[in-house]
Amino acid sequence: MARNRVQPVITFAVPVVLLGLLGYLDYGYSKVFCYDQLYVKKNRRACAIGFIVEFNLLLGEALLLWIITALKGPGKLNQQLKPFDLGPYIQRGQTVYANDKASFPTTSKLERIPDMFLCNSEGFPFWCSECKTLKIRRSHHVKSLGRCVPRFDHKCMFLGVVIGENNLLCFFGAVFYFWLFFLFGFITITVFASSIRDYTSASGMKIIEPNIIACYIGDIFWLLMMTFMFFGQISLFMDNDTSIDVLHRRRRSRERKMNRTVEPDFVNVAHPTLEDVRVIVELRERDRVFDKGYRSNIQSIFKTDTWKALFYPSLGSGAEEPSIESGESDLIAEEEHLYSQKFQQTIQKRIENGDGRIMGS
Ligand SMILES: [Zn+2]
């Protein structure tokens, strides 16, 4: 209960504090560093004006992308997908297991299900009981929003925004501009640091004005954070990974190292040779289910015009959502398309080598 009450306060407070810090940084940089030091004392007028304009343009773009990230939202599942009818496959698995060829059901018209989907140890796909749908499109249920978010990435503590398929690129744009902003502040202050020591400290030493020092330290801290986030996000794009997937894997590997029993992940796949038979295969630590190679991964993120959102942000351009009219077979085809070919082939090979368990056995 306490957590439920505290959570919204944190969600709100952290971005507000961050905005306050940014305001102070802007004051320290634009007013104290650029205007007082460069413009007035050093008479470097063009330089001071140029710095102020550039610094504030970068900040403005970053804030604009922050707002757009929040306004666009992480996206939602427009369609529900009802559970797959796995009964006939379980039955067939049982007869295969019993090696009872006589009672093999003759080819009945089965409902189409994906050739591959992530599942629990029993072979059943993941279901959201609140949204009443299979968790398609790599979605996760986000409690604070009360809905499933496709390609859920993480909840950004600093921006106070849930990041998913729909606003991922705008979020990346915001990170990119914040990174540039702190980098610009860092470089310009560093260049002039030695020539602006004209503040007399209590001990009589000549130092840089304390506001500038405070801003400089803050700038370096955030520059490191943003560098980490910016390159971290690029690495996620290259692997077609999400933050939550990475965290999930890290937790697993930590638990393994501590010799705890870890419930593995599974995929449910069509048997390579037996018709209408499904196999449940346990995933290995190094398996990357969605990794289609970095070229393809990057292309899928920057598909259509979405990359333009980084430079010409508008509310209209975002990750494409399939239209609400698309039927169940389209949804299933879309699901299948998520999994990498290479991974599918790896799994088929493993099954041929005796890995996996026939569903129903
Ligand atoms: Zn849900």
TrEMBL record:
<keyword id="KW-1133">Transmembrane helix</keyword>
<feature type="domain" description="Palmitoyltransferase DHHC">
    <location>
        <begin position="127"/>
        <end position="246"/>
    </location>
</feature>
<feature type="transmembrane region" description="Helical">
    <location>
        <begin position="46"/>
        <end position="68"/>
    </location>
</feature>
<dbReference type="GO" id="GO:0019706">
    <property type="term" value="F:protein-cysteine S-palmitoyltransferase activity"/>
</dbReference>
<feature type="transmembrane region" description="Helical">
    <location>
        <begin position="6"/>
        <end position="25"/>
    </location>
</feature>
<protein>
    <recommendedName>
        <fullName>Palmitoyltransferase</fullName>
        <ecNumber>2.3.1.225</ecNumber>
    </recommendedName>
</protein>
<dbReference type="InterPro" id="IPR001594">
    <property type="entry name" value="Palmitoyltrfase_DHHC"/>
</dbReference>
<keyword id="KW-0449">Lipoprotein</keyword>
<dbReference type="GO" id="GO:0005783">
    <property type="term" value="C:endoplasmic reticulum"/>
</dbReference>
<keyword id="KW-0812">Transmembrane</keyword>
<keyword id="KW-0472">Membrane</keyword>
<feature type="transmembrane region" description="Helical">
    <location>
        <begin position="171"/>
        <end position="193"/>
    </location>
</feature>
<dbReference type="Pfam" id="PF01529">
    <property type="entry name" value="DHHC"/>
</dbReference>
<feature type="transmembrane region" description="Helical">
    <location>
        <begin position="213"/>
        <end position="238"/>
    </location>
</feature>
<keyword id="KW-0808">Transferase</keyword>
<dbReference type="InterPro" id="IPR039859">
    <property type="entry name" value="PFA4/ZDH16/20/ERF2-like"/>
</dbReference>
<keyword id="KW-0564">Palmitate</keyword>
<dbReference type="GO" id="GO:0005794">
    <property type="term" value="C:Golgi apparatus"/>
</dbReference>
<dbReference type="GO" id="GO:0016020">
    <property type="term" value="C:membrane"/>
</dbReference>
<comment type="similarity">
    <text>Belongs to the DHHC palmitoyltransferase family. PFA5 subfamily.</text>
</comment>
<keyword id="KW-0012">Acyltransferase</keyword>
<dbReference type="GO" id="GO:0006612">
    <property type="term" value="P:protein targeting to membrane"/>
</dbReference>
